[in-house]
Amino acid sequence: MATVTISGVSKSFNGTAALHPLDLTVEDGSFCCMLGSSGSGKSTLLRIIAGLSDPDTGTVRIGERDVTRAPSEKRRIGFVFQNYALFPHLSVGTNVAFGLRARGIGKKEAHTRADRMLELVGLAGFGKRTPKQLSGGQQQRVALARALVTEPDVLLLDEPLSALDRKIRGEMQAELKRIHQETGLTTIMVTHDQEEAMNLGDSVLMLSHGRVQQFDTPETLYREP
Ligand code: ADP
Ligand code: ADP
């Protein structure tokens, strides 16, 4: 079970609240999309869940585990951040295998698992190429494969598609949906795109000035005036 439970989490920077005490439960296996204008606290919340930033108050649980003070690499999460680039000088396969190698897994097994992940994201046979030889959409697929290869419990995505052009973005949305269905991973994604949130999310969280404005199914949000 990898339900993500946020209880009373808050965060201030220089005395200004980026997040007011916030409670949120993202159910095991669900896909939660986070919407909100720039500065509403989306990245701050995602970074706290990822373990890249500590909350001032409150707790973060993944399943039964309290991970509030656990370092990022102990949380069993995968993340794709907008600015979390691939290593340009390493092959695609080595990029994907990187997290496994860092965990002490042997080269052969790491690359076998990396190849399997590249297959999952529709890039079978691309392992020997370098990131530069790939399109933006393909690079994001590699980033996704890299996030998934360590078999995380939770997948965190910070605007993974916003740099892509419209057509590719549509394709990648379908791809994310398929991968979510295949893996059953609890997924939390930040997006600026309301249509994308409605299309992908089983739940949509709207943040405004560091508070939860709405948290509901897309169907319910659509019905509201
Ligand atoms: P969003 O992701 O919704 O655009 P952020 O979480 O990045 O919002 O930011 C929320 C608020 O916290 C903003 O006012 C931002 O300037 C501030 N903030 C975020 N990170 C820092 C930081 N490291 N230092 C100072 N202020 C920060
Ligand atoms: P994005 O816009 O892609 O969501 P941000 O620009 O909010 O990302 O954050 C990028 C980095 O800058 C993060 O480490 C965040 O904590 C930091 N940051 C964001 N806003 C501020 C700020 N006002 N002052 C200092 N650091 C900030």
Automatic annotation (TrEMBL):
UniProt EC number: 7.6.2.9
All residue ranges annotated as the ABC transporter domain in the record: 4-225
Source domain of life: Bacteria
Sorted UniProt keywords: ATP-binding, Nucleotide-binding, Transport
Any one GO molecular function term: ATP hydrolysis activity
GO cellular component terms given for this protein: ATP-binding cassette (ABC) transporter complex
Protein name from the UniProt record: ABC-type quaternary amine transporter
Species of provenance: Streptomyces shenzhenensis
Residue numbers of the full-length protein present here: 1 to 225 of 373
